[in-house]
Amino acid sequence: MPGLPRCIGVLLAACLVVGVAAGAAAPRPGVWSSSTAKQRCHYVVKRVRGKKKRLRVCRKVKAKPVADLVVTVTGPPTATFGDSLSYAVTVVNHGPGVALQLRLDSAVGWSLILPPRFLPGHISASVSGGGRCGQPDVNLLNQAFFSCAVGSLAKGASVQMTVSFEIGRIAGRHLTVDTSAITASRDPNGDNSEDTADTAMTGCHPSYPANDLCIAPPPPYITCDDLDPYTDIRVDWAVADPDPHHLDGDHDGIGCES
Ligand SMILES: [Ca+2]
Ligand SMILES: [Ca+2]
Asked: Which ligand ends up closest to the CA of 95?
């Protein structure tokens, strides 16, 4: 009967339906249309008994497994210069299905723009269970990004990731490690798939009270050149006596004026 679905064979698991919606605007052939979570459909034009017909072609979409991943990041609440820090990331698959192609993306932030030579040293990440972590990718804000490939994670299973680094002589007031679990499965709750640990720096010299800058006492001495590019975006940051690094040469209370 015209207008009712008719399945034509099982080739490519496709079901062809003659589209005869009288008066309806014809969609362009080849454009995906009327798709749902279970099937994807588009229209094609074919000759049937010598006449052009517009046919609706649908293909079944293979359902993704569902896996609720829960991420927890823990680290030290405080740190100071010279410390070696370690952050533990735990990812648990609460199911009900397998987590396919699991990847852990971790961002290490310093809350300010650090000169590259003051980036924390020996920064690294590793993951348990045979997964692999790449080298950190550092952006223009000197945030470090890691991506660790885990593979599949069964329901009820967990994986651990460790992020480690050392703190130099200049840091942000807060250090953060943020990690997200990315999977090819469907995670029904994205809110618990990401977590952040926040570490407050201590030992910041009181002569440099900027909210985002933590400078260690000398030695060694730090110059305004050392603070580039921070000083490019903080042209009016405060310096108080005794200013042991001599960052306010004219003693007007403003550091590293150009
Ligand atoms: Ca989740
Ligand atoms: Ca000054």
From this structure: 1
In the numeric block, the tokens 């040469």 are attached to 249
Length of the chain: 258
The model's pTM is: 0.73
Is 192 in a helix, a strand, or coil? helix
Q: What domain range is 220 assigned to? A: 204-258
Q: What separation in Å is there between the alpha carbon of 141 and the centre of ligand 2?
A: 25
Please compute, for residue 77, the number of CA atoms within 13 A of its CA located in the half-sphere on the CB side.
Answer: 0
Nearest-ligand number for the alpha carbon of 249: 2
Give, as residue ranges, everything with CB less than 5 Å from ion ligand 2. Answer: 248, 250, 252, 254, 257
Clarify whether residues 98 and 187 are in a common domain.
yes
**For residue range 111-129, what is the model confidence (pLDDT) as tens digits?**
655 555 555 556 789 999 8
Residues 124 and 188 in one domain: yes
Chain centroid, CA 36 distance in Å: 28
